[in-house]
Write a structure and sequence with these properties.
Length: 211
């Protein structure tokens, strides 16, 4: 009986020793990962990972743990209101492609605006992004000045409602003609000298007549 008790006690001691052995942490092994550049974290071997900006993809080779990274360069965005999405490398144009006018207005591709007497147009069909470009620019041409509201005498006085080609009877002796340049050119009718002494000039006529 005594020997049985002793055996049981020994078994308990061995079991306790075994439990203790299990409680000892296993020896540390070096992490089986690749370390990404710029503190971007680790990648397990055999896996690939992206940098936080989404532009760099790295692969950690199984076994050798040799890391290969490929960086992506983004082309200039064809808009002035591009947005950066976390984890997506290249900026996108949520409102579609657009241009900026000299005055700073945004014009969608294919659209035009009038600004400071300029007609500005956005056409990105043949847009070639240049290095360091500040984005697509609208192409502007000056607008022709609005036509005057009438033709003017050489002294500058305008006759409202007249247009090129019009004749204007200023008085019975003066006829004016409006040129293409909206200028009234006036001609005074030359009257022959009357051949009598009791001449008169009828109402609305230029030259004197004899009775
Ligand atoms: C300009 O010329 C027209 C035609 O000769 C005349 O009727 C008008 O009074 C003139 N205006 C001025 C401001 O001189």
């Amino acid at each position: 009986m005594t020997s049985f008790r002793a055996t049981m006690a020994l078994v308990v001691v061995i079991a306790a020793a075994a439990l203790q052995a299990h409680a000892i942490p296993p020896p540390k092994t070096p992490p089986q990962v690749c370390v990404m550049p710029n503190g971007e974290g680790n990648i397990e071997q055999g896996k690939s990972g992206k940098s936080s900006d989404g532009c760099m993809t790295c692969n950690c080779e199984e076994g050798t743990r040799i890391m290969t990274c490929v960086s992506r360069a983004c082309p200039p965005t064809p808009c002035h209101d591009s947005v950066k999405t976390p984890g997506v490398c290249c900026e996108t144009c949520p409102n579609g492609p657009n241009c900026k006018t000299p005055g700073g207005a945004l014009v969608s591709d294919g659209q035009s605006v009038t600004e400071n007497n300029m007609y500005c147009m956005c056409s990105l069909q043949f847009w070639m992004p240049t290095g360091g470009s500040e984005g697509p620019q609208a192409v502007c041409i000056p607008l022709p000045p609005p036509p005057p509201s009438g033709c003017a005498f050489t002294n500058g006085t305008e006759v409202a409602g007249t247009k090129p080609g019009d004749d204007l009877q200023l008085d019975p002796c003066t006829t004016c003609f409006c040129t293409d340049g909206y200028v009234l050119q006036c001609v005074d009718e030359a009257c022959p000298a009357p051949e009598c002494s009791n001449y008169f000039t009828p109402q609305g006529q230029c030259c004197p007549q004899c009775p």
